[in-house]
Amino acid sequence: MANSQLQLVADWERQKEQKLGQDFQIAQNFAQENKQKLSGLENYRLDYLRQAQLKAKQGVGSQTFNQHQQFIGKLDKACELQMQHLNQALLVAEQRKSQWLQQQRKRKAVDMLIDKQAVAAQKLEDKKEQMMLDELSLQKFIRK
Known about the structure:
Layout: H1 2-58, H2 62-143
Helix pairs in contact: 1-2
């Protein structure tokens, strides 16, 4: 009875570990997506900056130059915001990893307990069997 209850606990711990592993994977994917978005924004900003510099060399009006500067400022803010999103996503991914590893340790502890109980039960069974064999041998010896 206790073994079946322990097996239920082990199954439950395994399910929790699986769920936390999936959560960790989702968080990692989200962090990776945020990293790619940041990279895309930074590349776009750099390309736009190069184009603005080329246009400035060719000569542009002050209003157009100001518009380029304002847009570059907006891109800078977008990059900063995306960096914050990335840092938050990385933090969440690290937390999910920690939870998953902690759950993995719990599941392994329950599995070890089940194994320990199985070994103890096998030893008890072996001892009973040995006692029966000893009793049979003793009875056989007495009959002779």
